[in-house]
Amino acid sequence: MNIENIKDFRSGYVSIIGRPNVGKSTLLNTILGEKIAIVTAKPQTTRNRIMGIKTLPHAQIIFIDTPGIHKPRHKLGETMVRTAMNALSEVDAILFMVEPCKPLKGDIAVMDILKKAHSPVFLIINKIDTVRKQELLPVIDKFKGLYPFKEIIPVSAIKGDGIDILLEKVCDYLPVGPIYYPDDLITDQLERFMVSEILREKVMDMTEEEIPHSVAVEVERWEEREDGLISISCNIYIEREGQKAIIIGKSGKLLKDIGSAARIDMEKLLNTKVFLEIWVKVKKHWRNDMRLLKELGYS
Ligand SMILES: Nc1nc2c(ncn2[C@@H]2O[C@H](COP(=O)(O)OP(=O)(O)OP(=O)(O)O)[C@@H](O)[C@H]2O)c(=O)[nH]1
Ligand SMILES: [Mg+2]
Hints:
Strand order of the largest sheet: 2-3-1-4-5-6
CATH superfamily of the largest domain: P-loop containing nucleotide triphosphate hydrolases
Largest sheet: 6 strands, mixed
Strand content: 15-25%
Distance between the termini: 36 Å
Number of helices: 10
Structural class: alpha/beta
Bound molecules: guanosine-5'-triphosphate, magnesium ion
Low-confidence stretches: none
Order of helices and strands: EHEEHEHEHEHHHEEHHEH
CATH architecture of the largest domain: 3-Layer(aba) Sandwich
């Protein structure tokens, strides 16, 4: 990376906030050009604060992807919402992401929270690939009437449309500052965490109803062999015995498919062959148990 002028270099923190499923993690991945956050078509995918670092010749932007803000129904949900709220203070800008439709209840609830924020708030209207241009103006008007956004930027996180403008505008709001992280670092996440997330993504993708949200993944063993192969053993935790049978599937077929899909992505991430072993275990009501939530890295 060619750093242009160290004296005018800008840097700072930017949070991505919004209700579940609007495309926050997709945006982060597109900006970085690499998949560091898991994405599914189901709401409440992200459960932790995910940091992604974008270094440009004249600026370093540290993005914080957050869990979707929703009405929590258990302690896991509460910690997720708390994680999102914590990302609202001490940042240089907040990207409030919505879908290209009129404000929903969930959006309005987030805007109420944003009224207490001290940082400039951008409205990011995502998924513009799903609507016609003329449908966008009334959406912008509706949101504009509800909050004094500093900038309004329509994007398609999936297609990469509007991303350059977004980065340019974000840089305008960053203070002059140091290069906080090495310019080739894109996240602070440990490989172990990313591997557990990959497996959780596949389970979420390949199961239905309450199962995707009842699952937690833990890496139990990680061994790097001399020939370069990494042998990983993971536990998938679910809340009830009945869910165990569903995840395993008829003759173990579903679990096998989940494992194959996860292994392919893990090999891409680690750039080597992976041997993956998965155990499905019951941890009763873990989503409502603070001790278990802590153990699983959720608080
Ligand atoms: N058509 C379209 N779909 C998108 C776009 N961006 C994201 N999606 C889809 O929207 C769904 C949710 O994406 P995520 O990135 O997981 O959304 P999120 O806001 O991080 O969701 P949570 O982590 O649950 O809060 C996925 O199916 C994405 O493929 C987009 O620009 N266009
Ligand atoms: Mg997400």
